[in-house]
Amino acid sequence: MKQSFFFRLAHLPKHTLLIVSLLAVMLGFTAFAAPAAHAASSSTIEQCAVGLAPLYAGEQTSQVLSSRCAQGNQSVVAPLISVLLARVFPKAQFMGTPASLFGNAGPCDSTGYTINVLGTPIGSYQVFNGCTFSRITSDTGACRAFKGNVSSVPFKIRTLQLSANDLLCPLPSNKKI
Length: 177
Hints:
By secondary structure, the chain is an alpha+beta fold. It has helices at 3-9, 14-29, 36-39, and strands spanning 46-52, 64-71, 83-89, 99-103, 113-116, 124-127, 133-137, 143-147, 159-163. The strands form two sheets. A five-stranded mixed sheet has the order 2-1-4-3-6, with helices on one face. Strands 5-9-7-8 form a four-stranded antiparallel sheet, with no helix packed on it. The relative contact order is 0.16.
């Protein structure tokens, strides 16, 4: 486990901690770029767990409270007092080793959780504990809303929002109602 590394991160500014945490998740996905002979080795696969705060008034994304990774057959410890919200996979059809997203304020509610994934390769994701609805957006403004698990993500994700309530994508400003 890399817990001592994350204790040192606690003193960094929030935006730096968010970037470092998401980079740790992205590093977990780099194991999938290895040749097939090496990808099967349990010592090269890294699993990650990310702990999120709920969205508070005025916030665009949830604060990343913790990010822990383990290699090989080591167990990834979920953040204390947390609920599994989603598992994100680097490939479509739930393929590859997932990163787990946990919420520290319990299951999804109407406010939910939003994470800025900064281009982390996400090909599919599963939702849990009341996170029935999700919305993904891209850097170009593309938006798609889903209900339930998503087996194939249609574009490179910038943000992933999870909620107990139906999430809609805004109409483009040039469209008339």
